[in-house]
Amino acid sequence: MLSTNSATTAKPILGGDTEIRRSRFSWAELAMKYGLLAVLALLVLVSQVLYPRFLDPLNIRNILSQNAPLGIIAVGMTLVMITRGFDLSVGSMYAAGATIFASLAVAGWSLPLAAGLVILVGLVGGLINGLTITRLNVNPFVATLGTTSIFSGLALLYSNSSPFVVTEQAFTWLGRGAVLGIPVSVWLMVLVFGIGEIVLSRTTYGRSLYAIGGNDEAARLAGLRTVLIRASSYVICSGCAAVAGMIIASRLSIGQADIGSTMALDAIAVVVIGGTSLMGGEGAVWRSAIGLLIVAVLTNLLDSLAVDSNYQLVIKGTIVVAAVALDAYARTRR
Question: What is the model's pLDDT at position 74?
């Protein structure tokens, strides 16, 4: 009788302990998932205290418009990194897109035709990356590092290492125009983020990206066309970089092949800070949006306080390392 009673009393204790662990795990998961929003809110509060004009509508507008190209690239980078890859060539494609777009403006092309050709160039560049990685089994780091040189060299040859200066006012609409008082580039960034979030969270294609990033072999055995799906993520990413290049060329009225040297690392930083795992299988576009806002607010604050650019690099690098370390810690706990 004693052993029976002991057994019966042991179950609730064990069950209670399990429930406590589950509760703690749930709170930890909740903090990991939505803690970025708290970080962003705290950063905005600190920025407003240190720089009273931070929440001025004109400053907010400038922050969003200045970071629209980076945000668009971050959406494509999110898709790639979820499949356990990354694309170092987005900086050179960004520069190539700006160069080609400006050159077509100088040549007298219409805005829609020029935009269509630039996007097509971006998609082709992404296809080259995707096929090199999936068909030739080249490591994404090596493959996109190589295509970075290729795309950059082709852009320099195309432009003869000289900038294209745009005088056609119609081409400045994309980078300087506004609709309902909000810059066109911001509207475009929001549209890209919205489409990316829907694709990832609501479509079979999005679920396939997660499956491939989680376990490529298991996804293949389950019948997914892993080669095609992984390659398509690079196509989308490069296309986003080309669009971002058009925006910067339109805003500055100039296109040159030597811009965007840090764009790839900036995009990866935004996505990593947003919580997308370098190990693949985890991440979300809305989280990359929060990561973009954190980086944008921090950059604006540091610029407003006239912090030396070298110190800014140190601060941003520290944040990226901390974000990666946090991801590794969370994976270890799970």
Answer: 96
